[in-house]
DNA sequence: AGGATAAATGCAAGCGTTTTATTTAAGTTT
DNA sequence: AAACTTAAATAAAACGCTTGCATTTATCCT
């Protein structure tokens, strides 16, 4: 009455060949005479044989599975990347083990370890900050790792990103050009390199070019949630900002709603530039002006890069920087 | 130079015990003397031994991995469910293989087959419609299946949902009570049971109680995208509707924007009730009035149910219906 | 035809665990 | 102290497949 699986051995017996031959036809090995191949295929079909991927994995030391560490699937920025990852993965016959990390350091390390225990062939990491411990685990294991939408100043593993610094500089420059002298910088924690280093540097560079002194009181740190954005608007306003560059779309939506709910007109009285180009930016009114990151592509390219690393193919460059653009939509006055 | 993994055998040798004993301490089997346990644990730690989950899976016929089929991670409704699923899964030491199906029938069957080939211990399916072929695969395999946010009229597998029919009836009744005589019904394909059967029946029931005849021209089918919603508003307006019940939040956002972009006031001139309570409903302005489904919980409960099925525990009921509520927010006039 | 080369197939040793049946050690009981 | 129980540990057989090597069979030359 138990799930009596039929194995490669059953197929071999029924087809009067050896297991090795069945294995060969299953794996598309060319060293099989067409007539035997046909015979085996028929038996496979008749018995409805389905190769056991676990046994395969043990014997071949390949699981055709990659681990994907994501802060939160519910965040449109990351889920868009994840979508690109999964599409390319399935194109290359890989499956994805998806694990939410909640940007919780110990949990990340633990998740990484269970992924490695499951013998994934590669790992794609999305996150905000790579702790030393995590970095150590990355380099200790021989499993290839690619960062997607995530930078690590210590460029040891592969990564796919855009140039956050120049994109930010350009956005802020736009804001300044529209007459805003006090532009707020709103992002997640400054401990995260993308915020604390790249974006902030871009922001400062834009100020500098406009001969505006950097004012620490215009820099705000918040959670990546619209709730947090709504709450922070008041402080931004109090700081005298007339515009804001925001490092996350959901946060930007919150900030905008904070303004709107107080009767502040956007963009007439307050301009907003956001950074991620998730579909959220086009779902709210006014539509958010944004840096147009190719989210899906970042995931897709990251996965493609990972396939190369897993195959030990030569790769020109492990640190990939994709192009971006700027879209002035409804939250900026610029013509 | 190769990744020379250290195996259970190495640990056994170093600790002067048999593999079996090492296996026992790794698996927390009580039949091992405290002193030996300690000794083994030390060696494990010193050698930095990490059990190979693939070998484990082969030997034990359990992979502690469940397959999750999702139409699109990028859809907030489903990703919210997925979040609940993953949290409970990791609580029970399971990992999730996430596969996007794009509601593409052949792809779904293929995805299911590769999940089964990978010997997942269970499957959670999210989707819109279960084809006969898929249903056949479900019942053919002995692997437990639970549907999350997905109904199958033929209740053979476990499922977790809310009562879509009465929730819809209640929402539409609200709309009618507010004075709307022509309420549009906007959803995804009517081929999908949730739309074509449950919600539509709820809609009809509400009309009937108000003695309003059902008018086929007020029923609209659309894709689950805000683009599609924007496009359809015009038709809804032409049909003379002054309000709409919408089966998907992103679609509802689109519909609302279609109205807003034409200068139609919401809710003053057009009221909207949506169905999923994703965070989208609170991110747009006005906030969408909605059926408040416990999205996270649906996923969580589904995963919990699956763990019971995987352990062959007795379960009172495989078809779980969770409570919902109604939230009148900014897109309805009713107090 | 006969030897040589290439193409197909088979054999069997792993892959790293779990698990069952056994053996050995350690207590208890009388 | 012999006879029994119970607890701990071991040995070895799976688990279902891949793969290097050996072997057989077919094909090609001269």
**How many β-strand stretches of chain A?**
12
Q: Portion of residues in helices of chain A?
A: 40-55%
Q: What's the CATH superfamily of the largest domain in chain A, by name?
A: Response regulator
List unreliable stretches of 5+ residues of chain A.
Answer: none
Work out the largest interface and the residue count of each chain: A-B, 51 and 51 residues
Query: Major β-sheet of chain A, in short?
Result: 6 strands, parallel
CATH topology of the largest domain in chain A: Rossmann fold
Q: Provide the CATH top-level class of the largest domain in chain A.
A: Alpha Beta
Proportion of residues in β-strands of chain A: 15-25%
Q: Shape of chain A from CA axes?
A: elongated
Question: Class by helix and strand content of chain A?
Answer: alpha/beta
- The CATH architecture of the largest domain in chain A comes to 3-Layer(aba) Sandwich
Biggest sheet: strand arrangement of chain A:
2-1-3-4-5-11
Question: So how many helices of chain A?
Answer: 13
Distance between the termini of chain A: 73 Å
Please tell me the overall pLDDT of chain A.
95
Oligomer: homodimer
The count of domains of chain A is: 3
- List the helices and strands of chain A in order: HHHHEHEHEHEEHEHEHEHEHEHEE
Domain HTH lacI-type (chains A, B): 6-60
Organism (chains A, B): Pisciglobus halotolerans
InterPro entries (chains A, B): CcpA, HTH_LacI, LacI/GalR-like_sensor, Lambda_DNA-bd_dom_sf, Peripla_BP_I
Keywords (chains A, B): Activator, DNA-binding, Repressor, Transcription, Transcription regulation
């Amino acid at each position: 009455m138990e799930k009596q699986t039929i194995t490669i051995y059953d197929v071999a017996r029924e087809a009067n060949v050896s297991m090795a031959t069945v294995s060969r036809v299953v794996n598309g090995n060319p060293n099989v005479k067409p007539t035997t191949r046909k015979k085996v295929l028929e038996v496979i079909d008749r018995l409805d044989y389905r190769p056991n991927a676990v046994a395969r994995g043990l014997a071949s030391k390949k699981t055709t599975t990659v681990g994907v560490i994501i802060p939160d699937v519910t965040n449109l920025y990351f889920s868009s990347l994840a979508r690109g990852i999964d599409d390319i993965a399935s194109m290359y016959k890989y499956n994805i083990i998806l694990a939410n990390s909640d940007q919780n350091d110990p949990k990340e390390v633990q998740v990484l370890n269970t992924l490695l225990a499951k013998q994934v062939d590669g790992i794609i990491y999305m996150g905000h900050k790579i702790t030393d411990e995590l970095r150590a685990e990355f380099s200790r294991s021989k499993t290839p790792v690619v960062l997607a939408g995530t930078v690590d100043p210590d460029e040891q593993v592969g990564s796919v990103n855009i140039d956050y610094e120049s994109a930010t500089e350009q956005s802020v420059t736009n804001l300044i050009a529209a007459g805003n002298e006090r532009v707020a910088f709103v992002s997640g924690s400054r401990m995260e390199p993308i915020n604390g280093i790249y974006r902030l540097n871009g922001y400062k560079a834009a100020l500098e070019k406009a001969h505006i002194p950097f004012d620490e009181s215009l820099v705000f740190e918040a959670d990546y949630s619209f709730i947090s954005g709504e709450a922070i608007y008041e402080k931004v306003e109090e700081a005298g900002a007339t515009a804001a560059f925001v490092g996350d779309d959901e946060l930007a939506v919150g900030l905008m709603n904070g303004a709107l709910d107080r009767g502040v007109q956007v963009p007439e009285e307050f301009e907003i530039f956001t950074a991620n180009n998730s579909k959220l930016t086009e779902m709210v009114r006014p539509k958010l002006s944004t840096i147009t990151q190719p989210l899906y592509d970042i995931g897709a390219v990251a996965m493609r890069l990972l396939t190369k690393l897993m195959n030990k193919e030569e790769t020109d460059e492990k640190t990939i920087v994709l192009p971006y653009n700027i879209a002035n939509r409804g939250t900026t006055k610029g013509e």
